[in-house]
Amino acid sequence: MSTMNRRLILRSRPCGMATQQDVPLELQPLPLLAEGQVLLRNRYLSIDPAIRDWMSDRLSYLPPITLGEVVRSTTLGEVVESRHPSFKAGDLALGLNGWEDYSLADGAALGRVELVAGDAEQHYLSIFGAVGLTAYFALLEVGLPQRGETVLVSAAAGAVGSLVGQIARIKGCRVVGIAGSDDKCRWIVDELGFDAAINYRSTDNLLESIREACPAGVDIYFDNVGGEMLDAALLTINDRARIVFCGAIASYNSQMPVPGPYNLWQILARSARFEGFLIRDYLGRFPEGIAQMREWLQSGQISFREQIVDGLENSLDAFNYLFDGRNTGKLLVRV
């Protein structure tokens, strides 16, 4: 095992898209383990839009990444050394660690991964991880879908949105997705079973496109984007609609305060509910969600896509896929 560790460090807070000047790759000595700690050799890094928010100094649900520290990310790795009773060398573990070859973590903050026959280990960062379980719990517990309702999903070709639409279909809803290319729109309709799709990059009037695709109005808007897309969706909601606020990718790279949403008054006018979702509120129910997602996967009722980029050194470029349209499905880096 090497005594040195490659790490992507946050040296400056990005203005717009993160660059190599903001996030350089550095070589640092491996630290020594203290009692209760575990050393992981990371195999996969989860690449998620929220990381961009953590790179800023904005107030969020987690503190900003400290300048000079490794970029924070969920990782899946193999235990190479342990001073915690719950882990031994060779175990697989998940945790909120960083973009690095090796992560030193408090064993109490890690989760053991027990593979079931047919599982690929990286599935625990996608379909059986925070992505799949966010889609599951956010839609079912906050969105409360009912048969015959219309569900509108933004970032519908993304990791969460693509699963949300399929779960909504299982629950008997009509599902419309908003995505950023014709290829993505074809994928979610032809392969994932969405009823309709809107390419927001090619439409001249997003509001009218939503109204055309959702003639009976929108009962659930699953929002991964925020910004102007949220504003347009708010003007199409029905009485007692539910807006599941899961992300705001439209604002993560913004260099100026993002105004609005201007149409928030529709929440009052429609007696609707607007509720934020964080997966940490459902940690104790992960086994339930994994069991159901596995059942749907094995029965062919849902499918998913993983986009895997090889090489720790390519993590920053892969991260920017999320913001320039190159990403489809769950994005991972194989270290």
UniProtKB/TrEMBL annotation:
EC number of this enzyme: 1.-.-.-
Signal peptide: none
Native source organism of the sequence: Pseudomonas fluorescens
InterPro entries linked: ADH-like_C, ADH_N_2, ER, GroES-like_sf, MDR_fam, NAD(P)-bd_dom_sf
Keywords recorded for this protein, A-Z: Oxidoreductase
Domain of life the protein comes from: Bacteria
Gene assigned in the entry: yfmJ_1
GO terms assigned for molecular function: oxidoreductase activity, acting on the CH-CH group of donors, NAD or NADP as acceptor
The protein's name: NADP-dependent oxidoreductase YfmJ
Claim: Manganese is one of the keywords in the record: no
Annotated Enoyl reductase (ER) domain residues: 18-333
